[in-house]
């Protein structure tokens, strides 16, 4: 459906990951071997927390309906800024129209959110799910995607207080409403959320056959494994990437996130936690 990348660590130019790797996110927009669709050309988004921004500050964002591979502004901006945490997403529209408000990442205050996947048969459940969004948050839904409704459901469920529980509660609501409407497998996807300090990366589907998701091994270990790879010197010791597909073919450089798991990444490193149970 889409492809995405999140970075956290020492500040760097986002182009280092968005443009430069052999299998960068922009390259994935043209050719995504592990994706449900090989081409993701229905718009993109790039959002970043500026270097030196105060804790809790809102991120900046640039979105466009142009294909990522064709947009010169993405190249200019990603080379001009530096950021310790950023998201980027390339879209393959699965039904909702191609318009800027439907491009990820979505933003609310200091939170960023993006999704690769689908709420199955969303047209049958959209009304009930949208009406479950807190009335104070509902006006902030600007587009027509299932992903944006999912984000605002998670905000309603307490994303700012307990991100893992809130995303889990939002998905359980989606499954409950979907099952009541006769949808066998209501939820599919990988999700990234951040408050500017931590990245939570979820892999889950009702069917137990989720979209692919990987994150990088820690940089000091990779330097020991590959002392001759000069590119690793670009990254600080705390640099971490979570991405829909590996950015290179170095064995051991990227670790797959298991099904029904959330990967939590911050300056202390990463760890995995069980997330929901597809059989529940």
From TrEMBL:
Gene3D superfamilies: Glutamine Phosphoribosylpyrophosphate, subunit 1, domain 1 (3.60.20.10). InterPro entries: EgtC-like, Gamma-glu_amide_hydrolase, GATase_2_dom, Ntn_hydrolases_N. The keyword Transmembrane does not apply. Residues 2-280 form the Glutamine amidotransferase type-2 domain. The keyword Chaperone does not apply. Keywords: Glutamine amidotransferase. It comes from the Bacteria. This is Class II glutamine amidotransferase. It comes from Microbacterium deminutum.
């Amino acid at each position: 459906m889409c492809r995405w990348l999140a970075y956290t660590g020492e500040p760097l130019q986002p182009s280092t990951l968005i443009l430069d790797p052999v299998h960068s996110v922009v390259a994935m927009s043209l050719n995504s071997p592990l994706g449900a669709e090989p081409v993701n050309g229905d718009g993109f988004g790039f959002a970043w927390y500026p270097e030196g921004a105060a804790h809790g500050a809102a991120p900046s964002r640039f979105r466009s309906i142009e294909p990522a591979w064709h947009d010169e502004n993405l190249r200019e901006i990603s080379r001009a800024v530096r950021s310790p945490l950023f998201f980027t997403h390339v879209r393959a529209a699965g039904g909702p129209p191609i318009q800027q408000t439907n491009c990820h990442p979505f933003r609310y205050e200091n939170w960023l959110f993006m999704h690769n996947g689908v709420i199955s048969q969303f047209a049958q459940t959209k009304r009930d799910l949208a009406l479950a969004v807190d009335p104070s948050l509902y006006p902030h839904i600007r587009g027509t995607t299932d992903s944006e409704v999912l984000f605002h459901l998670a905000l309603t469920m307490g994303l700012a207080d307990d991100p893992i529980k809130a995303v889990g509660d939002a998905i359980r609501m989606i499954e409950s409403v979907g099952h009541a409407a006769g949808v066998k497998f209501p939820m599919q996807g990988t999700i990234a959320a951040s408050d500017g300090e931590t990245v939570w990366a979820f892999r889950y589907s009702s069917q137990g056959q989720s979209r692919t998701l990987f994150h990088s091994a820690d940089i000091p270990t990779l330097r020991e494994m590959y002392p001759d790879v000069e590119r690793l010197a670009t990254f600080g010791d705390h640099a971490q990437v979570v991405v829909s597909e590996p950015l290179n073919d170095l064995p051991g450089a990227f670790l797959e996130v298991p099904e029904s798991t959330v990967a939590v990444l911050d300056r202390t490193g990463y760890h995995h936690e069980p997330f929901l149970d597809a059989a529940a």
